[in-house]
Specification:
Number of domains of chain C: 2
Mean pLDDT of chain C: 84
Shape of chain C: elongated
Shape of chain B: elongated
Radius of gyration of chain B: 27 Å
CATH architecture of the largest domain in chain B: 3-Layer(aba) Sandwich
CATH architecture of the largest domain in chain C: Orthogonal Bundle
Order of helices and strands of chain C: HHEEEEEEEHEHHHHHHHHHHH
Chains: A mainly alpha, B alpha/beta, C alpha+beta
Distance between the termini of chain C: 39 Å
Largest interface: A-C, 100 and 103 residues
CATH class of the largest domain in chain B: Alpha Beta
Helix content of chain B: 40-55%
Number of helices of chain C: 14
Oligomer: heterotrimer
Number of strands of chain C: 8
Low-confidence stretches of chain C: 417-423
Number of helices of chain B: 13
Number of domains of chain B: 2
CATH topology of the largest domain in chain B: D-Maltodextrin-Binding Protein, domain 2
CATH class of the largest domain in chain C: Mainly Alpha
Radius of gyration of chain C: 31 Å
Largest sheet of chain C: 5 strands, antiparallel
Structural class of chain B: alpha/beta
Largest sheet of chain B: 9 strands, mixed
Strand order of the largest sheet of chain C: 5-1-8-6-7
């Protein structure tokens, strides 16, 4: 083989690889573009939603609107009587936060421990069965949860109220809402936590075990804290569902007209039940004001998410 | 450790088995027992007042039971007498008021007949639907609410109460003696605003069938709508004005929207009309009364869920002007029935009773004026 | 010290078992609750039948009624059937799954004059032969009574609402039958089941790529700045917005997108687009969680071997994030199948028997909504539909898992090196 030929081959190879490289580059670029586009679409959706809700929700406070609602009264009001044209959202906000908080408080530890059980502790068959059950639960339509709640949960609540000498409206109460929401957000948090725990690198665990920690210690101290980000993401999604659930909650909340509710056996009212009750039936200001409630709800969710993220960061830096 | 696991698995399996058995009744024994022990601790700390209350309650319960038994006996012996003289004084305890949401047509009808618009007590339980109301009042011995006459009272553990001494029924509503009722109304799109001229003709024919013909009224009546079938004309005589029904209409679709309460009677009428009018297609897309006007004459009339005929289980409001519609009217009535739990001895309410109860002037069963 | 640790460990482990036990208990209570109420309503006919029954009407103008004599009831008639000797036809009363009274024709004598009806409805089938055949559900029958007036009897008439009454009217009061109005059996779930599957497919096709790509962008490519953080938190915000709002948004905004596809009204496509928006946060969060846990070493190794970023994502990151994506898919399926509030606005509540991607339709959850929102809700039917939903989810769940298991195993066979994580994925899925 002459040097000329060698050179020729070399340049050929160089040209080819250059071509290939430029092809890869362009593929790379287009794919990057597609990825970015998808990210933007996702972000765009939220802008659309916010714009859509805001456009409808703000108009009831504007002076040009027919029978405008006073913004101050709306934000500080403790009565919601749409038949009288009284719209006060503050007590509903308080009720919503209380119910979602306690539902989270009940469901979160149960979910995380169940997830730990599914991934690390349970024998394989049991764990598979539990995973499937959890996934099935997420698929039950909320109206069925509602019927379950108004059939079974309210009975229990009514009996409990009897021990404390309270008369309830057939068990429809804040406590029933909390229990129902806890059940409903359980599958969401659990399946997120399962993914997070599963993804913890085995080396972390092995390291911990090698250092002399027991299996349980490793599970609780190493696995759970490595999976923290995912578990908290699950909490955010779960609380999102607790805030956003309407159909089932409206079947046990009783939609109290005044509040806030401090006694767990009293009727309550959440933002979503307020939005949903009679939504399909109504027109005019009573319809539009539901979007104002929607804005309030979105603000609350935003604040909650920020708070949870801050908590997570604090915990991470604390380690 | 391994043994522990095995034992725990066994225990878990056992718990599951037990739960399967007990859950049927919706009871969870383990939880209850736990709570009971907690409860006992708390009970000891109770003040005298509460114990007083407790004894009061117990006696109340006893009297309740007695009254129940007595009334049962009475009904067994003399059925008619108990109906005529309801022993209103013997029912005791707090009245739990149930109401529908403010947008409901049933509530609007009920409040306007009883005459307490805007004055509903703050201490009321707002339910989300007719069925929700039926289940809840049926489960609450102290409850009172109102539902549509088409409700299955027996299945929901309810008894329908008389209003001003008149029993709710199709006959009493038609002859005007039973006053608690609400209208089922319809509105069509504006003239010339249909997908095709043929569809407009077909809709026109259907409206005549629904509101005037014997066949249409019979179908509505059989599905629970209250209409006077005597006052009708056979379709054979009416159809001469509507030649559209004598051609093959399988390519046409009548789309309806609005109230879900009308769905049953509307479906019955549409189904009865299909073989009489060339097998047109129907899309019964009911969501709620508010959408009835919106989707035919309002904002959504050209949106994805545009409808040819919109329905409302109440009168159309001032915000919902129907002047433009090709036709808009009432097509039948629905009776509103005051309901109480099955064993409640109070079986008749006057307008005054209901006004007091629902405005919160009377909060205990024993205080109801006879 | 050691003993305390062991005790502590046992307590912690016991706590885990206890909480899982409590959860399992509640979950099973829900299943039992649903099955107990719905099981008796569920049967094969309910699954395979159309929802809308065919409405049929046939007349007997051309029949010479004097020709026919009396008929005798056959021995095979069910006990609760009532037989008309004059016309040789038998009916049975029943109640449909929708809790409506029905009157089924269980026997029609081959010699009966009612065999020779002719369809009166305008259309291509007008004049075709149609008798009051077995299996039809009679709604109304018109006859000429002894005085010579035209009367009607049956479920939608004022008299003859039960089989017994109807037969006695026909036998004692009628001279001849003018026409009848009957229905084929309806109330089935076929259309809703097809729509549900269609909806799941369409939504996943739209949402999965966008969601997974968006997650990859956010985690792998996006610069770590305020904008990215803002996008991320706004996506989290999406997860808490009530689905009613998504429905209303879909109705006004996404409708413009489907209009470009040439769809004029509500459609499964519009429902799928709306659901895709609802699902984005779930898919993005789950995928991102999986991405976070792909060790950085993999990426660096791949890049340092000369692979481009896209190759790294395609060959290394996505396969390793597969369990997360899979779990996102399963959660999405659950959400799609359980969602109703948003679909009421975008797909409508009219139950269709032959749904397509560009027509209306109801998913099973919306079917439940329709069943429950009437004046007399039918919880038995709703529970039966829930059981169908659970079965569908179970089948999809198992098949998705099996598919992924196969996929990842094949890959493992090909390259056995460097597969620790993949092995982990397969064994755990």
């Amino acid at each position: 083989m002459t040097t000329e030929q060698q050179n020729k081959n070399k340049t050929l190879i160089r040209e080819r690889s250059a071509k290939r490289r430029s092809l890869y580059k362009s593929v790379d670029r287009t794919m990057q573009f597609i990825f970015r586009l998808c990210g933007l679409i996702a972000a765009l959706m939220i802008i659309l939603i916010v714009f859509f809700v805001a456009a409808r929700g703000i108009q009831v406070f504007l002076p040009g609107y027919e029978n405008p609602v006073s913004l101050g009264e709306f934000l500080t009001g403790m009565r919601w009587r749409s038949d009288q044209g009284v719209y006060g959202v503050l007590f509903i906000v308080i009720n919503t936060i209380i119910t979602a908080f306690f539902a989270g408080l009940i469901a979160f530890p149960l979910s995380v421990l169940s997830a730990l059980m599914i991934v690390k502790i349970a024998p394989k068959r049991l764990s598979n069965a539990l995973t499937t059950v959890v996934e099935l639960l997420a698929a039950i339509p909320s109206v069925v949860y509602g019927v379950f709640a108004s059939g079974a949960i309210t009975d229990i609540v009514e009996k409990m109220a009897g021990w404390f000498n309270y008369t309830t409206f057939g068990g429809n109460s804040m406590l029933a809402v909390i229990l129902l929401l806890a059940i409903m957000i359980y599958p969401t948090i659990t399946s997120m936590a399962v993914v997070a725990i599963r993804a913890v690198p085995e080396s972390h665990e092995l390291g911990s075990l090698a250092l002399g920690a027991s299996r349980t210690q490793t599970n609780f101290k190493v696995v759970l804290s490595s999976a923290k980000s995912g578990i908290f993401a699950g909490l955010i999604l779960g609380l999102g569902r607790a805030f956003g659930e309407a159909t089932a909650v409206s079947m046990v909340a009783g939609n109290a007209f005044v509040g806030p509710t401090w006694n767990p056996f009293d009727l309550t009212r959440t933002l979503t039940t307020t939005m949903l009750s009679g939504l399909h039936e109504t027109v005019g200001v009573d319809y539009d004001v539901r979007f104002s409630v929607g804005i309030v709800l979105m603000i609350i969710i935003l604040i909650t998410n920020l708070a949870i993220n801050a908590l997570r960061k604090k915990m991470e830096s604390g380690d | 450790m391994k043994n522990l696991k095995k034992i725990l698995v066994l225990v878990l399996a056992l718990v599951m088995m037990i739960s399967v058995v007990t859950a049927c009744g919706g009871d969870k024994k383990d939880e209850k027992e736990e709570k009971e022990t907690k409860e006992e601790v708390k009970k000891e700390e109770k003040t005298e007042k509460e114990t007083e209350k407790e004894t009061e309650k117990e006696t109340e319960k006893e009297t309740e039971k007695k009254t129940e038994k007595e009334t049962e006996k009475e009904t067994e012996v003399e059925v008619e007498e108990t109906e005529a003289e309801a022993p209103a004084g013997e029912m005791t305890g707090q009245i739990n008021v149930y109401t529908r949401d403010a947008a409901s047509g049933t509530r609007e009808g009920f409040e306007s007949v009883v005459g307490f618009k805007d004055q509903l007590t703050d201490n009321a339980n707002e339910v989300s639907s007719n069925g929700d109301m039926a289940t809840k009042v049926g489960e609450d011995a102290q409850g009172i609410g109102y539902v549509s006459l088409t409700t299955d009272f027996e299945a929901n553990n309810l008894q329908p109460a008389d209003y001003e001494g008149v029993e709710p029924s199709v006959e009493t509503v038609i002859d005007g003696s039973y006053l608690l009722s609400r209208p089922f109304c319809y509105t069509t799109r504006a003239e010339g605003d249909y997908e095709s001229d043929e569809l407009e003709q077909l809709v026109k024919a259907f409206i005549v069938f629904l509101t005037e013909s014997t066949e249409g009224k019979e179908a509505v009546l059989s599905a629970g709508g209250i209409v006077d079938v005597e006052d009708s004309t056979p379709w054979d005589e009416l159809k001469a004005d509507h030649p559209i029904v004598d051609q093959d209409n399988s390519g046409l679709t009548i789309t309806t929207g609005g109230s879900t309460s009308v769905e049953k009677s509307l479906n019955a009428a549409l189904e009865a009309f299909q073989p009489l009018a060339g097998n047109f297609d129907k899309v019964v897309n009911q969501t709620g009364s508010g959408d009835g006007w919106k989707r035919t004459l309002g904002d959504d009339k050209d949106g994805p869920n545009a409808s040819d005929i919109g329905f409302a289980s109440r009168n159309f409001k001032d915000e919902e002007p129907t002047e433009d519609a090709m036709s808009a009217d009432k097509y039948c009535d629905d009776a509103i029935v005051v309901v109480i739990e099955k064993n409640n001895p109070v079986t008749n309410f006057t307008q005054e009773n209901l006004f007091d109860i629902f405005t919160g002037a009377v909060t205990n069963w024993e205080d109801i004026a006879k | 010290m050691n003993r305390i640790r062991i005790i502590k460990d046992r307590i912690a482990e016991g706590l885990t078992w206890l909480s899982s036990g409590i959860s399992a208990l509640v979950l099973i209570a829900i299943f039992v609750f649903i099955f107990k109420r719905g099981w008796s309503t569920l049967n094969w006919d309910l699954l395979k039948n159309n929802y809308n029954s065919e409405n049929l009407m046939a007349g007997y103008d051309h029949i010479d009624w004097d020709e026919h004599g009396a008929f005798a009831a056959p021995d095979t008639l069910p006990e609760n059937a009532f037989f008309s000797e004059k016309y040789g036809v038998a009916f049975v009363d029943s109640v449909s799954a929708a809790k409506e009274s029905q009157m089924e024709v269980v026997f029609l004598d081959p010699e009966s004059p009612l065999q020779d009806g002719k369809i009166t409805t305008a259309g291509p089938r007008q004049g075709d032969k149609l008798g009051l055949e077995e299996g039809l559900y009679l709604k109304k029958i018109s006859y000429i009574n002894l005085e010579g007036d035209k009367k009607s009897a049956g479920l939608t008439a004022t008299q003859g609402k039960t089989s017994e009454e109807l037969v006695s009217v026909l036998d004692n009061d009628s001279q001849e039958v003018v026409d009848f109005y009957a229905q084929t059996e309806g109330g089935g779930l076929k259309g809703s089941i097809i729509t549900t599957l269609l909806l799941i497919g369409l939504t996943l096709i739209i949402a999965l790529p966008i969601g997974v790509f968006a997650a990859i962008y956010l985690h792998e490519l996006a610069p770590k700045n305020k904008l990215t953080a803002w996008i991320r938190s706004s996506i989290e915000l999406l997860s808490g917005v009530p689905s009613v709002i998504f429905g209303l948004m879909g109705m006004t905004m996404l409708f413009q997108v489907t209009r470009l596809m040439g769809i004029t009204g509500q459609s499964t496509m519009l429902g799928a687009l709306t659901l895709a928006v609802i699902l984005l946060p779930v898919i993005i969060r789950q995928t991102e969680e999986a991405l976070i846990n792909v060790p950085d070493g993999y990426r660096m190794a791949s890049l340092s071997m000369g692979a481009t970023q896209f190759q790294t994502i395609y060959k290394i990151i996505i396969p390793n994030a597969m369990p997360g994506i899979l779990s996102a898919t399963l959660l999405s399926i659950s959400r799609i199948i359980g969602e109703s509030a948003a679909l009421i606005f975008t797909m409508g509540t009219a139950i269709m028997d032959n749904p397509a991607w560009n027509t209306r339709g109801t998913s099973l959850a919306v079917h439940i909504w329709t069943v429950m929102s009437g004046e007399q809700p039918n919880f038995e039917l709703a529970s039966a539909i829930s059981i169908v939903i659970l079965i569908i989810v179970l089948i999809l769940n198992v098949s998705v898992k099996y598919l992924t298991y196969r996929m990842t195993r094949d890959k493992d066979d090909q390259k056995k090196k460097n597969t620790k994580v993949k092995v982990k994925a397969t064994t755990e899925t």
